[in-house]
Specification:
Layout (H helix, E strand, L loop, with lengths): L11 H9 L2 E5 L4 E3 L7 E7 L2 E6 L5 E7 L4 E2 L2 H4 L7 E4 L3 E7 H10 L1 H27 L2 H16 E4 L2 E4 L5 H8 L3 H13 L3 E4 L2 E4 L2 H8 L1
Antiparallel strand pairs: 1-8, 2-7, 3-6, 3-8, 4-5, 4-7, 9-10, 10-12, 11-12
This protein binds adenosine-3',5'-cyclic-monophosphate.
The site of adenosine-3',5'-cyclic-monophosphate has 14 residues, from strand 5, helix 2 and helix 4.
GO molecular function, one term: cAMP binding
Protein name: CRP-like cAMP-activated global transcriptional regulator
Keywords: Activator, cAMP, cAMP-binding, DNA-binding, Nucleotide-binding, Repressor, Transcription, Transcription regulation
Length: about 220
């Protein structure tokens, strides 16, 4: 449990106590945990695998708000701002989660200021990131947004090797396009262009970043 930033400041006893009030949930790739608009009463922490949080427009188009992996939490908004779930959660890979009922969360926050601070830290980071995304939708072109999305995925799921940074994002091309907020064709064109310049190598559901510096420059 303490591998999750939310709970990393807890001592053995407190971590054990909180863990004993948590449930476990496992999902297969593609399974939906909850839908946008559902009543929500649990907060989740990813222990293994990846999930996506997405919203669907009235005409059926999907926008991905975030891809979350091990250690990251979600499902807190419907607790702090009581109301329905603000997004649909779907497993991107087979995934293991820990769940904590919203009713159990308040006593944890009241007695463990470390957990409350870590939660605020994650919420603040999320707001900062969302501001960036909104700014990029207004100010950046699609290739710039693709570069930025790849760098964000690399910072969380990347592994350095001799030939570059291997990013096993586990996303289909469609999902990558939904994350960038552009059509699949435009996103594929940007990826093919980056590949032809030697900045990266495309592999199914993963990418190898060969020239990190150029990609960073394109993202700016
Ligand atoms: P909740 O509304 O309970 O259920 C959906 C969850 O998606 C929400 O809580 C947040 O945890 C998460 N979420 C919503 N918007 C974002 C965002 N912009 N970035 C990351 N996570 C989000």
């Amino acid at each position: 449990l303490r591998q999750a930033p939310l709970f990393s400041g807890l001592d053995d006893e407190a971590a054990g106590l909180i863990e004993s009030s948590m449930g476990s949930v496992s999902l297969k790739r593609g399974e939906v945990l909850f839908n946008e608009g559902d009543d929500g009463n649990q907060l989740y922490v990813v222990t293994d695998g990846k999930i996506k949080l997405g919203r669907t427009s009235p005409d059926g188009r999907e926008n991905l708000l975030a891809i979350l992996g091990p250690g990251q939490m979600f499902g807190e908004l419907s607790f702090f701002d009581p109301g329905p779930r603000s997004a649909t959660c779907t497993a991107v890979t087979d995934v293991d989660l820990k769940s904590l009922g919203h009713d159990a969360l308040l006593p944890v926050l009241a007695s463990h200021s470390d957990v409350a601070l870590a939660l605020l830290h994650q919420l603040a980071g999320r707001l900062r990131r969302t501001n960036e995304v909104v700014g990029d939708l207004v100010f950046s072109d699609v290739p710039g947004r693709v570069a930025k999305a790849l760098l964000d995925l690399a910072s969380r799921f990347g592994r350095r090797a001799d030939d570059g940074v291997h990013v096993n994002h586990d996303l289909t091309q469609e999902e990558l396009a939904q994350l960038v907020g552009a059509s699949r064709e435009t996103v594929n064109k940007a990826l093919a262009d980056f590949a032809s310049r030697g900045w990266l190598r495309l592999e199914p559901r993963s990418v190898v970043i060969l020239d990190l510096e150029r990609l960073q420059r394109r993202a700016r």
